[in-house]
Amino acid sequence: MVQMCRNPTVKICDEHQLALSGILLLDIDQTLSILEHMDYLNAYKEMDSNYAKFTAGGHGAWIQDVYENLHLIRTAATASFNTCVNSSTLPFEVKSILHSLKRTYSRQYSIKGVNENTIIKDHLVPILDSFFPNDDYLTTYAADKEIAESSIRFTAIDPSLQKHAKKADYSVVHNPTKFALLTVEAKSCQNQSKSSSDVVKIGKYLKDLLDAAEAKGYQGLQLLGLVSRGDQINVYVVEHKYDCIYTMFKLNTLHIPIKYTDIHRAISAFEILSRLKQIVDYNVDIFEQAKDARCIAKD
Fold this sequence. Notes:
299 residues; 10 helices
């Protein structure tokens, strides 16, 4: 790998770029060539098993209702849709997402040709805001809102990130510490081939956040990074379990409907977002436990 990196004519893949920063990318879809090595495969299986505790529990009871409402959006049955959603026992955040999809996916709407800001505004923000409402612990930020601490950390901790001195397209931030627990980088359909560098960038950024958190005494965080590649969003979890190795595990993939005719692709978001909410809440608990421990120590 070192010899390859010294050759300026060789394009370094994501796995190798991340490895140079001590980050092991565990993505079953992009690293098939490595699967012949049992150590890698075993590491992947171990991480997959660890994250199985964050299940989409409870969604099975209402996922069929969601599917039926998506069908009503597809057939433009507005009156039936409104009646069905409003009279259902679906969770509030699920109803909010369904109403947002209904408003967005008209007969003329398509994400083809739109830029990443539109993808964030039309699809990701309504979904993420519904699952991560602002409260005493968390605040959501889109790219046009400044988070001074995160912006400084993004460029100062790792000098190699100076050329990527750009805020994330969307973040879920822990209010007391200002650490981003979930970060999104989006690319439009026509620019999705450029999203490869976003995987490296978000991996390095989350590694830096983990380092900064550990320096303040917060151990065991599992930070989320979402990378949009056109009409799909890959979800990664970065954590620091081993001395010199950080793991970046691809947890799942969300699919964005391109237009109303494939609105059922949105079903993946309902199944996955509840898992992400559990992981974010897990991190909030770590911060709260650390705060309680410090209060006890002072007493």
